[in-house]
Records
---
Amino acid sequence: MAKVEKDTLIQVPVTRAYEIWTNFPAFPNFMKNVRSVDQDGKALHWIADVRGRREEWDAEITEQVADRLVSWKSTSGVQNNGTVRFEPEGEATRVHVTIEYERSPLEAVGDTLLHVVAREVTEDLDNFKRYAEMGEPVIGRRAETLSETTGT
């Protein structure tokens, strides 16, 4: 399994950062390649663009501690697991993301995909920071509409 770890400081209280992150159906508002996430209890159904292809997979939340962490593992399709930790830093929150995923045999030959995934995680985390701090979607159709009307 390949592993990517990233973190960022978000200028919102830990309760708010956790609340926003654990609203999984809102992920398309800040995750560029995520088309949808449907949640039924601890079960999540993902549709996303992975390596240029539309993929669907299921995951389950394996651990969830309010205002501290949420962990998951895939149960079908794209094999991955991870944890997002939330640590208060004064009035702000440090969000630390760890993701492990299975590489295909071809991808295992080089580190190119690892760098691509690391860049995507960084972009998604930066988008999450803006989304949490601004309270508006930063990508997708809703963000494009906001940008057109506000000129930003």
---
Amino acid sequence: MVDEFDASYENAESAIQRWANRLDMASDYVDGKSLAEALCLAICGGDLADYYVPTLKSHPGLASSVAVLKNTVQPEFSTAVTDWDKKDFFHHVFTMCRDRALFTTSSNHIGICPKDTRKGDQICVLLGCDVPVAIRSDSNGHYKIIGDSYVPGFSSNEGFLGPLPKGYREVQHYSAQSGMDYWVYLNSETGKIQVGDPRLGDELPSGWQRVTDIERQFWEEHVHDGASSTRTYLDPRLTKPELLKRGVPLEDIEFS
């Protein structure tokens, strides 16, 4: 399914109702969470208050978003929500879904993609690319990129490393010193933040070393054999040779 968003704030509520009615909202998502949570994450592009540290008060939270979603689809069976929560959620959906479409995949993932995406296109994770992308094949077996996408349960390197450990989620951590947000991993059960991916452990390939901020709370770079010219934000364990060592099935594709 590829269902384009009606590009106006006034149509946000009807679009949400239409999308929810095309899904089995009583079922669980592929990652074990509720489909209601997954749909909220999808149509908000994962950009919710809970995915920032400290919590971003200008964004709707996941719990309030799920409540509005349920109230929109089945108001007679859900908890009452405030007009402010509705306005906040609908405006955020409009912002994130403008020029986008909701899609479902054969693996039962859902997400948002460029509105030009068509049925039969594929969602692909590319080495070195921060987000999944929609791609389309041609008659010669080559591909072209349609654009970036957001897929709950597939946008934090799950395609290469599998799901995050229970309780972990990838969040943006604000540094007052630099005035920037950095992607880190939050253990919601302990409140602990770590820069490195918990699925990869601490060991690096031979010759590689970490360089981090003093608190190890914001950023991490990697240097090979101490040479500053090799300094990179990319994790050396997420290269083709290292992933193949882990048994990750990779495929080479050509773009036209």
